[in-house]
Specification:
The chain has about 280 residues and is mainly α. It is about 60% helix and about 5% strand. The protein has 2 domains: about 140 residues, no CATH class; about 110 residues, Homeodomain-like (Arc Repressor Mutant, subunit A). A 3-stranded parallel beta sheet has the order 2-1-3, with helices on one face. Helix 1 links the parallel strand 1 and strand 2. Helix 4 crosses helix 5. The longest helix has 22 residues.
Length: about 280
């Protein structure tokens, strides 16, 4: 079977061919062409197009093309499912989805920079994904420092650092500024990409580092938590209706506000407000 996609592959357009060859069709032929030639060439060569807009095998919602292949072919392999989060995080710049996602992106981008021939890039990329699959299947619990002496030395060193600096992490200036921006603009439609522009920080770095300085929460989780806290604060004043509170805390509508509020507090807003008045 022939599969065709746009040239200069990095994440999905290497990961998907790996999945095809290892789990769907080991003799599959992968073809790379310029973007505007994918559809015409697919008809001419009787090849299935993938990872471009408007075709079956492409991104769906927040899922990448790799996810769609897994769903379409009913692949249940646990290691492949673990790989999916890494591939998705790297391919969609949501590096918070997996600790390994930024590393995969760095390797993929570097390989694409060094290797101008797409088929050679695919050949070497398949080896990378074979390694990632083996790690997901057999080695996720392994650590680099396997020897007891190495581990002991590492523990001693970490204890020494903690004794010198304490367990508190130094909060970078950008994290302090970001916290203030979120507090001031909690009623706005905040996105990490837009915030990164204002802070003049690479969005990939920001998404990767965010949880370290914001209570081990992802950006979305932290925003929802902050909005609920702000809503609870506004509920102390009888002058605000629940509809107004939903608007002032950035929820799209009252039903969305009610659903998220109940998930965080266990009560819907009207019940919570009544109980707060009784205390």
């Amino acid at each position: 079977m022939k599969w065709i996609t746009r040239e200069r592959p990095k994440i999905d357009r290497i990961a998907c061919p790996w999945l095809i060859k290892r789990f769907i069709d080991k003799d599959a032929e992968i073809i790379y062409v310029p973007f505007d030639q994918v559809i015409p060439s697919s008809k001419e060569l009787n090849a299935t197009p993938f990872d471009i807009p408007g075709v079956e095998f492409t991104h769906v919602g927040d899922q990448c093309t790799f996810d769609y292949f897994i769903s379409k072919y009913g692949i249940k392999d646990k290691a492949v499912l673990d790989m999916a989060a890494i591939v998705r995080g790297a391919d969609t710049d949501r590096h918070y989805l997996s600790e390994q996602a930024p590393g995969l992106w760095a390797i993929a981008a570097g390989m694409a920079y060094n290797i101008p021939n797409d088929l050679e890039l695919l050949e070497k990329g398949l080896i990378i994904y074979d390694g990632l699959y083996s790690w997901c299947k057999h080695l996720q619990k392994e650590k680099h420092t396997q020897q007891p002496a190495e581990q002991l030395l590492l523990n001693v060193w970490n204890n020494y650092l903690n004794s010198k600096t304490g367990t508190r992490k130094k909060i970078p200036a950008w994290a302090k500024e970001l916290k203030e921006i979120i507090q001031d603009q909690i009623d706005s439609n905040l996105t990490l990409k837009e915030l990164s522009k204002g802070l003049e920080i690479n969005p990939s770095y920001l998404s990767r580092e965010f949880s370290k300085h914001f209570e081990n929460l992802t950006f979305g989780e932290y925003i929802r938590k902050t909005r609920i806290e702000k809503a609870i604060e506004l509920m102390q004043s009888p002058s605000y209706s629940l509809t107004e509170i939903a608007y002032l805390t950035g929820f799209s509508d009252q039903s969305h506000f009610t659903r998220i509020f109940k998930r965080h507090t266990g009560s819907n807003p009207s019940e919570y407000r009544k109980m707060a008045k009784q205390k």
